[in-house]
Amino acid sequence: MAAYVLKAPRAVRRLWHFVQVGKQTMSTETQKPAASYDFESLRITGVREHVLHVELNRPEKRNVMNKTLWREMVECFNRVAQDSDFRVVVISGAGKMFTAGIDLVDVAGDVLQSDGGDIARKAWHIRNIILRFQESFNVIEKCPKPVIAAVHGACIGAGVDLITACDVRLCSQDAWFQVKEVDIGIAADVGTLQRLPKVIGNASLVSELVYTARKMMADEAVRCGLMSRIFQDKADLMEGTFDMAAEIASKSPVAVQGTKLNMIYSRDHSVKEGLDYMATWNMSMLQTEDIIKSAQAAMEKKSPRDITYSKL
User: Fold this and answer.
1) Which residue, among 97, 267, 68, 65, has the nearest Cα to 167 in the 3D structure?
2) Closest by alpha carbon to 262, among 246, 252, 273?
3) Of 126, 215, 252, 270, which has the fewest CB atoms closer than 10 Å, so is most exposed?
4) What is the pLDDT of residue 255?
5) pLDDT at residue 114, rounded to an integer
6) How much is the pLDDT for 117?
7) pLDDT tens digits for 105-114?
């Protein structure tokens, strides 16, 4: 068949090429990595070498986050953190949008549940629930592997909490973002108010967004720094995201994971503290064999993709 295609007109050869690529993409993206990643609200697949795709998988409910999803996010990323087979994670949403935010109907019962008549005990009960919800996105930040958010359609409320905990944020042209909490009578409490100001570095804009609950469209999200790239549609977005994830996954995992941990530490500490931590970190990490492999590849004019780095 291949020999026949080589003799065919250019248009036919291109069509044959796209069919073959499509077959490879389909077989790769539907590969199930492990039984331990079998969840009810999340669909987990291996899409490229060392790249794990975590998909919010409640499309019929606009991917609203119910109690199961909040719990499974913690379980998933705790496993990813220890899984040496995967070096980069991509998060996206199934269906027509990324997520419509929290599932109020499902979650409200726990929050409003009475625990006796004492105000202090009710408050303690609610505080514990909030801390559990916060951990659902804290695990993304604490995961040593880079996490890329691929956003299409709406990203509302808790969706903004989620993506601000990610390392890289990409979106399609139809994406829009909304910190919706004030419209339902609460202050955002699982990460947006803490991370969004640091992500975009504009206190006035953050205040405007969280006080008014207005929509931010994709173009503005890129201009302010919430997103780093826009793609034409979801298909282009996912292809571009997986390409970026594969590029990162081809690098030394010692270097990439050390970079993530030190950037997060430096964000929350002074320059002096960050430099001291970096020196302590690299006093051991500079002894990695990955440096020798990388230097040898550079001398041989090879790329990191040609290097086999050991699992970490």
Assistant:
1) 267
2) 273
3) 270
4) 96
5) 59
6) 75
7) 888 777 766 5
pTM given for the model: 0.86
Query: Is pLDDT at 159 greater than 70 in this prediction?
Result: yes
Amino acid sitting at position 96: K
Q: What is the pLDDT of residues 15-70, one digit of tens each?
A: 444 434 343 443 334 455 555 789 999 999 999 999 999 999 999 999 999 999 99
Q: Beta-carbon neighbour count of residue 159 at 10 Å?
A: 28
- Give residue-wise pLDDT tens across range 165-213: 999 999 999 999 999 999 999 999 999 999 999 999 999 999 999 999 9
Could you tell me where the beta strands, DSSP code E, fall in 161-202?
Answer: 168-172, 176-178
3-class secondary structure, 21:
helix
Task: Using DSSP, state whether 282 is helix, strand or coil.
Answer: helix
Q: What is the DSSP string of 221-272?
A: HHHHTS-SEEESSHHHHHHHHHHHHHHHHTS-HHHHHHHHHHHHHHHTS-HH
Supply the mean pLDDT for the chain.
88
CB atoms within 10 A of CB 272: 8
CA separation for the pair 227, 80 (Å, rounded): 24
- Output the six-digit token pair for 241: 């995201």
Beta bridge partners of 93: 56
Q: Beginning with the edge strand found earlier in the chain, give each strand of the sheet holding 51-56 in spatial order.
A: 42-48, 51-56, 88-93, 147-151, 168-172, 229-231
Within the chain, strands assigned E span 42-48, 51-56, 88-93, 147-151, 154-156, 168-172, 176-178, 216-217, 229-231
Q: In the chain, what is the straight-line distance between the N-terminal and C-terminal CA atoms, in Å?
A: 41
- Report CA torsion sign: 36, 55, 141, 312: positive
Question: What tokens appear for 220 in the block?
Answer: 């503005």
Euclidean distance between CA atoms 204 and 226, whole angstroms? 14
Burial class of residue 303 in the structure, from the number of CB atoms within 10 Å of its CB (0-12 exposed, 13-18 middle, 19+ buried): exposed
- Residue with the two structure tokens 């993530």: 260
